[in-house]
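Re: the request from the purification team.
They wanted to know what the chain is likely to look like in 3D before they choose a buffer screen. I agreed to run a prediction and write the result into the notebook, where they can find it.
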Amino acid sequence: MSTTQQNVNDSATDNSADLTQLIGLVAELPPQFRDRIQSVLGRVVESTQRRRRILTLVQEALGQLRLDMKYLVFDLEATRRERDEFKSRSEGSEE
């Protein structure tokens, strides 16, 4: 796992712990305060979950892109080797 991905995962875990703690603290509030805060807290939790899903999708897409790039570089190198081999053979047959 890359360092960046590890930092993102650690951050997500920290945020999850913070949100869990915040939800617990809001649940302990008197009803008149809790009712006012809970709807906003619900939107924050949904937003956080949505961002986490998007981040996961972006990480997966980047991983696939890196893999595709490795295949393309390998293919390019193989094509160049084949070209050079063909050139050397064709130059050898001309002489």
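For the purification team: Residues 5 and 59 are 8 Å apart (CA to CA).
Please add any questions underneath this entry.
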